[in-house]
Amino acid sequence: MAPDSGTRTLISHAQLRRGRGKVIYWTLLAVVVVGFTLVFLGPLYWMVTGALKSGQEIAQTPPSLFPKDPQSQNYADAWNNLNLAKLLFNTFYYAAGALVFQLVLDTAAAYALSKLRPVFGNVILGLMLATLMIPAMVLIVPQYVTVIDLPILHLNLLDSPFAIWLPAVANAFNIFLLKRFFDSIPEELMAAALMDGATPLRTLWSIILPMSRPILGVVSIFAVTAVWKDFLWPKLVMPSPETRTVSVGIYAFSGGTPMNVVIAASVIAAIPTVIVFLIFQRNIMSGLTTGSLKG
Amino acid sequence: MAITTVPGTKREPGRPASPYPPGPQRTSLGRKVRDNLTGHAFLIGAVICFAFFSWYPMIRGVVMSFQRTRRGVTTWVGWDNYDRIIADPSFWTAWKNTFYFTILALVLGYAVPFFVAILLNEFRHAKGYLRILVYLPVMLPPASALFLFKFYAYDPGDAGLFNSILKALHLPTSQWMQSPEMTMPAMVIASTWMNMGGAVLIYLAALQNIPGELYEAAELDGAGIWRRIRHVTIPQTRLILALLAMLQIVATMQFFIEPLILANGTGAEDSATSVAYLIYQHGFFQNDLNGAAALGVIMLVVLAGFSAVYVRLSSKQD
């Protein structure tokens, strides 16, 4: 096999490298690269440049490819009128808190379930996994009622970041991912640490966590993007204009705001996640395509 | 943070003075209990969160669906909430729309990513670039992506992106969200564009696990590309295909943000109302939390039915 080839797939490499196969391969590749760029990047280009157009230019037919007279005012208006700085800060704050809570509590739980195995551990794991079967929409009303009057404690978490942080911890999928990864860490390492007199917490901190960086990265990305992308839950539990997330804020303003300004705000809201994605895309791709889900 | 309250960590974390490890001779009942306590201490934070925000609301939802709260007084009303919800004409419209959306989304959002993944898996070049492209929309906040579709792509005039393309190809243009017939397909197109990246990556992982010898053997037996897909690719990825079908059904049946943003909730002639949107409307606009809870329980039963069929089918095949 040639050094550049990976494993054999549907069509053999030899077939792709010779005569007709080669022509078809390169044609198809070109078509797909151009086609996908148009389908997936095109709308984003349309969005970024469209927000620079004037109201007149946006309504003209045929539409212009480049804004004739770029109106950066739309972006400035979006930033100022929608108080985007505050909205972005809120969203960032909720996402960061959800990340910290999930990393601490879910990692600890997965570690206990995988390595410490207390009595009823399997029952608890089963009850956690069972929540994966319950659609989020079914829980939305009772969850909301619970958050406005927390049982036993009788706290109202409305407009409090805890209303986003604590429910985020109840994430069976992330606990499952972490537990599966911890399961693959050999027991001998645990036994050796115990021999050395390390406490369970110290074992977790100095042995398990350093070995688990890849999965911690994946869980972190899931945790952050889930909060960043969520819409209905923050809309319900963060009703005040001061505590809104950026998606909810844009939606709330979309009624009485010019279309170009709404689109400009949407672009600004998308920038942080897209940047995070481009920086970490290697980790995200490998995290999603290896191990976690095998057929 | 909360982990500092773990008992057992108060014991000194350094090395024991004795060179002999505290071996099995100390595996007494006391030690077992202490190990167990440590285990539960690590679990407690997550368990409390599950209890408050998952397990308890689950039970509460079922209880609420049989109650009615008026002026702060809660009474048991039996099936009243269910009767009221089902008598509402939008109940049936919403279910009809939801099934229509789910079927369309299965055809588009389920089959398309599979063939995209098969195609991408054959390429030796531009692999990384194509994967990033497909996954990029997944990273956008859904509200951002949907406003893009609402204002630009589905503009009912000639200036909209889709209508411009249709016009350039000399095809008839559409009213998109303003036409009841196009509302669903338009919402499914937007939803597929936004979400297909995740499925493509999962399929790619499954395709990479297929042993190459199977394709070689099929080729030697004279199987063409289509027969290789049918007899090697699909059987080899059967489990993941079935699992994603299940997840896709559960996820799409809860569609909510598409009608809310693209169609202002109900759409032209109620063509966009979904069951999830109806839950939201009952619960948070009509101040009918009990009715919304009942609707949630109905949805749970329907989705549990799908899950049962899935488990049945997948256990039969193995």
From TrEMBL, chain A:
One of its GO terms (cellular component) is plasma membrane. The keyword Coiled coil does not apply. Keywords: Cell membrane, Membrane, Sugar transport, Transmembrane, Transmembrane helix, Transport. It is a multi-pass membrane protein. The chain crosses the membrane at residues 23-46, 92-113, 120-142, 162-182, 203-228, 261-280. Residues 88-280 form the ABC transmembrane type-1 domain. Its main location: membrane. It is found in: Cell membrane. InterPro entries: MetI-like, MetI-like_sf. Signal peptide: none annotated. Pfam families: BPD_transp_1. The keyword Transmembrane helix applies. One of its GO terms (biological process) is transmembrane transport. It comes from the Bacteria. Belongs to the binding-protein-dependent transport system permease family. This is Multiple sugar transport system permease protein. It comes from Micromonospora kangleipakensis.
Automatic annotation (TrEMBL), chain B:
One of its GO terms (biological process) is transmembrane transport. Keywords: Cell membrane, Membrane, Sugar transport, Transmembrane, Transmembrane helix, Transport. It is a multi-pass membrane protein. Residues 95-310 form the ABC transmembrane type-1 domain. InterPro entries: MetI-like, MetI-like_sf, UgpAE/MalFG_permease. It is found in: Cell membrane. PANTHER family: ARABINOOLIGOSACCHARIDES TRANSPORT SYSTEM PERMEASE PROTEIN ARAP, BLL4140 PROTEIN. This is Multiple sugar transport system permease protein. It comes from Micromonospora kangleipakensis.
